[in-house]
Design brief:
With about 80 residues, this protein is an all-alpha fold. The chain has one domain. Helices cover about 70% and strands about 0% of the residues. The protein has 3 helices and no strands. It is elongated and about 55 Å long.
Length: about 80
């Protein structure tokens, strides 16, 4: 189970990596393939957004349990089996 501090650290790591990628591109003067560069930045932004969403959902104290996972792996079935 991941806690909010670990999520914060992961979000910070993603943000730091994106900034470092931008700095490296500027410092070295290496012209990266623009499409590759933009794809990496957008992927990192998407990861950060997803992690922020998960963090917000986990912060809701209304529920004692949260099922997080891929589609069709049995999250809903697990709830139905408890009755």
């Amino acid at each position: 189970m991941i806690n909010t501090q670990e999520l914060d650290a992961l979000i910070d790591s993603v943000h730091t990596y994106a900034k470092e990628l931008q700095r490296k591109r500027q410092r070295t003067g290496i012209i990266l393939d623009k499409l590759d560069y933009m794809c990496k930045i957008r992927a990192l932004e998407s990861m950060k957004h997803n992690l922020d969403t998960i963090k917000d959902l986990l912060a809701i104290e209304k529920y004692n349990l949260a099922f997080i996972g891929q589609i069709r792996i049995g999250k809903t079935n697990a709830i139905g089996q408890t009755r």
